[in-house]
Write the structure tokens for this entry.
Amino acid sequence: MNDRVVLHGIGVSSGTAHGLAVRITPAAGVDTNEPACTDVEADGQRVRDAFSQVAEGLAARAEKAPEASKAILTATAGLARDKALVKGVDKQLKKGMGVTAAVHEAVEVYAGKLRKIGGYMAERVTDLYDIRDRTIARLRGLPEPGVPELSEPAVLVAHDLAPAETATLNPETVLGIVTAAGGPTSHTAILAAQLGIPAAVQVVGVEEHLEEDTHIALDGGVGEVIVNPTETDTQELEERSRRRARALAGSSGEGSTRDGHKVKLLANIGTADDARKAATFDLEGSGLFRTEFLFLDRDSAPTVEEQVETYTQVLEAFGDRRVVVRTIDAGADKPLSFANLGEEENPALGRRGIRLTQAKEELLDDQLEALALAHRKTNAELWVMAPMVATVDEAKWFASKARGYGLPKVGIMVETPAAAIRSRQVLSIVDFASIGTNDLSQYTMAADRMQGELAHLLTPWQPAVLSMIKETCNGGSKTGKYIGVCGEAAGDPLLALVLVGLGVSSLSMAPKKVNAVRAALRLHDMSTCQQMAAYALDSWTAEDAREAALNVADPVMKDLL
Ligand code: PEP
Ligand code: MG
């Protein structure tokens, strides 16, 4: 029996899981000890075979993949069959290069050509590198890199995961996700919560403990991971689940505090499929539709017609419930190949969000037109907001455009300290604001949200972040405008109470988090929420702020966290 090891990370998607740990394999790279080529024909055949195995593997995965990733997998499989690529390899073999080095070099040459052509072709370079890594792994007799195909449900363990990789995971076979790196507000963590897969990030050292057939247990609520759990461990994990279920029992209906102060409980979604799933939950609509998630895999901008179709599906899914759509927020860790403005030194501080659509205005125009058409078709309760607003001018630019298309309710996200500090002025332009605590924490604390090691700075319990939220709510009450929260903070049941105490009227989160937040609200009066908020604001550290709120809270809250 292998050693039992308990590790602590950050829980980012609640729920418990245990099962076989499956590693996400890193790329192997060129074999530095391989022999030089002496038989071009034989080596060429080996490489051809490896390419076709890779192509077949990808095509088979495309068959089973969700609709959004089918096209990309099929296109990548096509690249692995490209004749020019094979010829390029022969050329390198003739120079005497070993097989893996020849593949590496041929791919580099080919990638250079694609980059030169630019546009769509240049965007295929990432796929080409994927082919390279898979082919080299085959030639070396190693497993192909990336998320393996799972024959039985398992817990995935990786150093880190890209949002695009996470988006393609199947919650039916992926029991849980554990990463050694990654941050709690990274888009990977957000996607895991969206998919309802229990997940913990920043579980430092987890990879070193994995061997063949290692079992692993995970509590995605508190971020605890046990490698080689005992039977008692898994029983204790199940007991935690039961306690939580008891605390959640009977959580239903509209969100409100115990004394009847209404708080709308909404879902964060990224696709029409998410909308259909979220709409089956007991919640009051969607407070954040991250529209850029629709386009992460795409090589070209979607047409107005395509967008109308998707937005109509989303609005219809929610019927007469509110849907807050965020216009495209590309850039930083969500690059869109068709909205690329070139390399940037600091993408998170660069032309992302509204700044990108100011440079590529047609993207926003198409989107607003499509939203207006979908609204006309459905007459749904549609609210539209822009991401990453920092100035009154940006708010004006967006509001006049959106109103020009006849959109009824126009708002902004408060994600920058600039917008929070000047919320009275910015809010006077628009109808509402939604606080994006993920980016607001990143920019208030000057800490990259992708940098898991900075999680202690990124927590929205940081008093400086709470002050920013308070400032935003002050602006809201002075202008009589509505303030919601749609960052990950909204889904933390204890923090949700503080947010309500600060003056927030709606909370939007992964649908699976709604029950716990609703149960937490029902346990407390508005005056208790306000007291928690005052204590948290008065605290000097993030830990003290959380502790202060927990001290005032009902003891059952411990089972909800
Ligand atoms: C946020 O920043 O809090 C937010 C909701 O937007 P995103 O996480 O998509 O950047
Ligand atoms: Mg954001």
